[in-house]
Specification:
The structure is a homodimer. Chain A has about 475 residues and is of the alpha/beta class. In chain A, about 40% of the residues lie in helices and about 15% in strands. In chain A, β1 and β2 form a beta hairpin. About 0% of the residues of chain A have low confidence. Chains A, B: Belongs to the class-I pyridoxal-phosphate-dependent aminotransferase family. Chains A, B: GO terms for molecular function: DNA binding; DNA-binding transcription factor activity; pyridoxal phosphate binding; transaminase activity.
């Protein structure tokens, strides 16, 4: 019998409180290696919380290496991989730092980290960074080399906080291909998408403010918004888009500081919305006077040729902010994203960029400019379009062929890397199902982390970004088998 | 007669309110090109504020290009350099974004930006980035080239949020040279110093919390702290250090969340504190249980050979966080700094880094590692030590020879790039004196921006980082002349 007490008034989510306490028990020796934890049902009853909450806590503990699954659906305490460091962490805090931590840190202290190492021997459908084998390393090396030779120290000094001007000009031209008429003055380069989301949120919100997001949505955007102390309200996704009736109903109740949306190749579902949906979304934002933040993180991955233009392309009232990134098509490790915003905001974002960073790296920005300017980017885009067109076709064919229709539905993306599985099983069984998938050698992203509030069903996100053709088919076969035999 | 109204209860500093209103008048045509503004004395009387406040406002307006000095110490409205963009900014805000801005942005909206273009033909003592002519561009190009060739896509994908491990290991070894015994586990790479200050402040403070800094201090740290909503209390600098009696008296009144200090080559004064001062500072922090954040931004610039070790080297209770950067010795444009923190904090900082950035750029981090690992860094360090040893000796000799002792005192740094001038003139005359310096072809950093609260006297910071020998001597001669003839 383990003793856990829950504070329902705490800022800390319930499942995190459970995680914290069980972890403390393990670390202090109150729970020993090999001890079996109570079933989720039993612990939920004892503590007085929903069973899903306990599941989520167990999933976190599993991910952190504190527990493992045993026969009969139970979990038992396991030996940590890295006890020395863990021990050091406990012993070494001579000062008592725990009493000094900010609310901002506490709000993310239990968030699952995404950079978990790839597990050997698994078909890993989690990573959303492009396949290394498709990256134009040699062309980029030459671009980098040439930039240092020709521009020298000038790109190695502090740069313009808004970013390297020729790259902003080039991005303005690239944006025109997507119907967005903009100029370098309206563009601010960021350290990838995440930095763009932070800057925009910090420009337009104070802690405690409300923002609307799709539910599910990009998990790291949720984490960022928690970090900034925002109240995040999820607007549910239909099979085709954000539910705009629900959005309007919510707007009548409260006006958020912004609406964050991914109309194209939505993360995690892969859904792209229709032109008429985009028009209606824009009209709603205009009517309620709410800024719309459009995340076009995979805008350039329209390899099936269907190209609905971004909402930003229709933004006559200039109340949209568009976020882009190179990370899903070129090199994530360059950390280059961008914001397109009305000039009055772009100047303010530039100032915030300077206050927080002084500037991005002119060197990497100049190297990417040169790479694009010399035509390598367009060549590269065509090449990865060919590769992923084929991979996505294969993946969708495998989903149609193998996935049991009764137990699981999948989305049919028109580009990008993501397929979203909605199972017939309740959320409470997501962690269990996930462990079975791992057991059969497949890693996917459990769906619960993408929701602002818990959904009913267990979901999984598949990213094909990092997988080859044969792995894709084999992986989906295994997923199908696990789901088929799950009950 | 211009009409300005002041809200003394506003979060907006008084001088910024004056700046805003005069700028609006100019932009709306209420004040026309060539019109002479009231004297600072007169406007101060009319508005009911201190004369220094009006001076500061006029200085801001001058820096932004809205006014210019005319004979008799008056200022008049001038034509803006970039009216089109300025106009666009006003006309184009169709949405009314001004009503949507956050407190965080408002707190920095009027802060002077530092990246102002170098003014042609001036001897510019403002920039704190190393002389481009001394930067080892070609060696770095080869390191970058080799890294892309040997590591390929692996350094072009997302990296560890804590930073590229070999570079962290190398920094741990480098820290040992300064008496800091640490390991890669305790190091988190940042996007330069500024990002390090932000992460540490956000880990340890909530908006509204109090922090102590030296007064004067690094201006962009002040800006960052304002941005984070912190209450900043300045502890005055003596000619040798932070005034520790004043620190203790302040600590008895209120306990800040952290103390931010630059014991070595303090910015802006160039002062390095003694060993006994460091010991006493540490003992005070220990006694009051307050975290100390030590900014060692120029630690590696000890070219006169005198090397007091960082306070962090004595940190047995592990209540110090040390901040370092490559920006003052290698390439600022790589944006690489680092935090050394007790491992329990380092893990938390790593998590925050991931939430805000996902990771830094493994590519630039790996290139710097290779550059250092192959011995180029040590060679480069010796080379710039030689150059700046000579430049600083020349600068100090010129100060001794030319500066009028009655009117101005200067610090005698034991390394780094900075010399600090304390004039006999009151703060109110700083802007005027600064304009005279510009008039004689010398740009320096006016001192007022480095203070948390207004000082009595007019100060100026000279950085020799970007200047050659002959310019240094000539620049200091001109400064001496202007000060001599100022009254």
């Amino acid at each position: 019998m383990i003793l856990i007490t829950i504070d329902t008034k705490s800022r800390h989510p319930l499942f995190e409180q459970i995680v914290d306490q069980i972890r403390s028990l393990i670390e202090s020796g109150g729970l020993k290696e090999g001890e079996v934890l109570p079933s989720t049902r039993k612990l939920a009853e004892n503590v007085g919380v929903n069973r899903a909450t306990v599941y989520r806590a167990y999933e976190e503990l599993w991910a952190a290496g504190y527990i493992e699954a045993v026969a009969g659906g139970y979990s038992r305490v396991r030996k940590r991989i890295d006890p020395v460091k863990q021990q050091a962490e406990i012993v070494v805090d001579r000062f008592g730092w725990e009493g000094h931590l900010s609310d901002a840190f506490m709000s993310i202290s239990q968030t699952r980290l995404f950079s978990s190492a790839q597990l050997d021997g698994l078909i890993d459908f989690r990573s959303l960074s492009p396949d290394s084998d498709l990256l134009p390393v040699e062309d980029f090396r030459r671009s980098m080399n040439a930039v240092i030779q020709t521009e020298g120290a000038s790109v190695l000094q502090y740069g313009d906080p808004a970013g390297y001007l020729p790259l902003r000009e080039l991005l303005a031209r690239q944006m025109k291909q997507h119907g967005i008429h903009t100029s370098a003055d309206e563009i601010v380069l960021t350290n990838g998408m995440q930095n763009g989301i932070e800057l925009v949120c910090r420009l337009l919100t104070n802690p405690g403010d409300c923002v609307f997001v799709e539910s599910p949505t990009y998990a790291s955007a949720l984490t960022m918004m928690n970090y900034l102390g925002l109240k995040v309200q999820g607007i549910s996704m239909t099979s085709a888009s954000m539910n705009l009736d629900e959005l309007e109903a919510s707007l009548r109740k409260q006006k958020p500081k912004l609406i964050y949306s991914m109309p194209t190749f939505h993360n995690p579902t892969g859904i792209s919305t229709s032109q008429s949906h985009r028009e209606r979304l824009l009209r709603i934002c205009e009517r309620y006077g709410v800024p719309l933040v459009e995340d076009g993180f995979e805008e350039e991955m329209k390899y099936f040729g269907k190209a609905v233009l971004p909402v930003k392309s229709m933004d006559r009232k200039q109340q949209l902010i568009y976020l882009g990134t190179f990370s899903k098509i070129l090199f994530p490790g360059l950390r280059i994203g961008w914001i397109v915003a009305p000039v009055t905001l772009a100047e303010k974002l530039r100032r915030m960029k300077e206050v927080t960073d002084l500037s991005g790296s002119p060197l990497t920005q100049a190297a990417v400019f040169r790479f694009c300017d010399q035509g390598f980017y367009e060549l590269h885009k065509k090449r990865i379009h060919r590769a992923y067109r084929k991979r996505m076709q294969l993946a969708l064919a495998a989903c149609r062929e193998f996935l049991p229709q009764q137990q699981v539905q999948f989305t049919r993306p028109e580009g990008g890397y993501l397929i979203w599985l909605t199972t017939c099983f309740p959320l409470e069984r997501e962690a269990e199902l996930n462990q079975k998938l791992i057991g059969t050698g497949v890693a996917v992203s459990p769906g619960s982390r993408f929701f602002a509030a818990d959904p009913e069903k267990a979901h999984f996100r598949l990213s094909i970004a990092h997988r080859k053709e044969d792995e894709i088919v084999e992986g989906i076969k295994r997923i199908a088998e696990v789901i088929q035999n799950f009950n």
